[in-house]
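User: Structure please.
Assistant: Input sequence and predicted structure:
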Amino acid sequence: MNLHILTIFPEMFVPLQESIVKRARAKGLINVNLVNFRDYAPSKHKNVDDYPYGGGVGMVLKPEPIFAAVDALPAGCDRKIILMSPQGRRFDHSLADELSREQELVFICGHYEGFDERIRSLADMEVSIGDYVLTGGELPAMVVIDAVARLIPGVLGEAASSQSDSFTEPFLEYPQFTRPETYAGMQVPTVLLSGNHALVAAWRRKESLRKTLQQRPDLFRPDKLQPSDFVLLRELMQEDAAINSLSHLWLAYEPPAKAKLNKTRRHRCKHE
């Protein structure tokens, strides 16, 4: 995947030279092109912003440098231009997965008070990482790039690493433990040391449900429950009063209990 990042602070993108993204770049799975759009400013002093028409506080990014920087990008096919903006579509795992299938992404990172409105005409989409305002679009762009990069085939060591993450599955990820077995009086759950894969799987599923209901009940998807999950949920209701108070989220989806067959009555009917 080719990533073009338009910014006036390219030095902020040092994190893309580390960790998983660094390895992806080394493998040739991701190519990063940092473009300082100040270089495309037509004025003698390379100004990229100016006062807003109609008055107001702050400075507004001028259209000429950004339009020129986009025009100067290497010719590419299936290119998607993304404007980082607090007014954009809320970024989530679904959008990360969608973007990971693109061949080429262009990120326009604003700064200061905002953009000249005409800059929006360049973008295929506007993306926000949350309902708050940052100084510029550089940090949000890095968040998006990191989330997208790890979904590109071959970037992570194991494909299952990204598939089992929270927000990939309909419920939050189960707790993870590693050595030592005991630390500061805190013990790894015994079931994880049992070697019984069925018990481990059941424990992980139960803890995944528990964590979702305790921390993000807004993400709980009763339509994604498996029949065996209702047994686990009944156990959680008995263990945690707070979870019990949330039982309305799934009770309507619980399959009816199978009626017990009355063998005596059935036997009598045969002879009547």
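The chain has a mean pLDDT of 91.
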